Amino acid sequence: MRVLVIEDDDNLRNILIKRFEESGFVVDAADNGQDGLFKGQEFPADVAVIDLGLPKISGMEVIQTLRDEGVKFPIIVLTARGSWQDKVMGLDAGADDYLVKPFHFPELLARVNALLRRSSGNTTPEISCGPVVLNMSTQSVEVDGHPLDLTSYEYKVLEYMLHHQDEVISKSTLTEHIYHQDYDRDSNVIEVFVGRLRKKMAVILPDEKLIETLRGRGYRMSSRSD
Predict the structure, then answer these.
(1) What is the pLDDT of residues 147-197, one digit of tens each?
(2) Average pLDDT of span 62-82
(3) d(CA 108, CA 15)
């Protein structure tokens, strides 16, 4: 999954980048509102973490502009302002949640994961599609009750597909959400990851086609059984 971090404090921003990457996210980051707004408009984020007190353009204006332009990814506000009025203003601007500084990263990560779950219609850490169950908290996967041993990138591909089950997902979209912006998008690496996922799932359920290929369009995991 891809997270946009807009934070002007260099130390905090670098910590957030490091911790999110350690948690399996692709991270886009900006140290001011102007650059952050551009990245929010142009990059395919799944969730954003935005400080309110930003230079050039305030975090509040960034959020309002993104929402006015129809950008729908979940947003969590970071703020040093603890008053209820500031929290209400952030939510009214279009944020989905807020966290007051100082904070512990595990709480921020839990809130980010909760927003991601809600955005895909899930209310628990577990995301399921037929016999496939992924737990975002433990980053574990089971197929028909049996654990599935995945590499980090196989997990990222499967996680994105489960968040967007029943949708056709192109190879370029998967690449954008599991790799940084400068990755070679002509690579066939996504086909390799999907092929590995299929083989590992087939060991457990050899007769079920859990990931469908739509030639020239991409892949789909269907929540509906035939």
Answers:
(1) 999 998 899 999 999 989 899 999 888 888 887 655 555 558 888 999 999
(2) 90
(3) 12
Helices (H), the chain: 10-22, 33-42, 59-68, 84-93, 105-119, 152-163, 171-178, 189-204
Q: Name the one residue in this structure whose structure tokens are 């590992």.
A: 200
Tokens of 158: 């499967």
CA distance 189 to 174: 10
Q: Nearest CA to 113 among 3, 225, 226?
A: 3
Whether 158 and 133 have beta carbons less than 8 Å apart is answered as no
pLDDT at 226 over 50: no
- Alpha carbon 142 to chain centroid, angstroms: 20
Question: Averaged over 98-124, what is the pLDDT?
Answer: 88
* H-run or E-run covering 100: strand 97-100
Q: pLDDT-derived band of residue 55, with 50, 70 and 90 as boundaries?
A: very high
| Domains of the chain listed by start with CATH number | 2-119 (3.40.50.2300), 126-220 (1.10.10.10)
Q: Beta partners for 76?
A: 49, 97
Instruction: Give the distance, in angstroms, between the CA of residue 19 and the centroid of all CA atoms in the same chain.
Output: 14
DSSP string, 33-91: HHHHHHHHHHS--SEEEEESS-SSS-HHHHHHHHHHTT--S-EEEEES--SHHHHHHHH
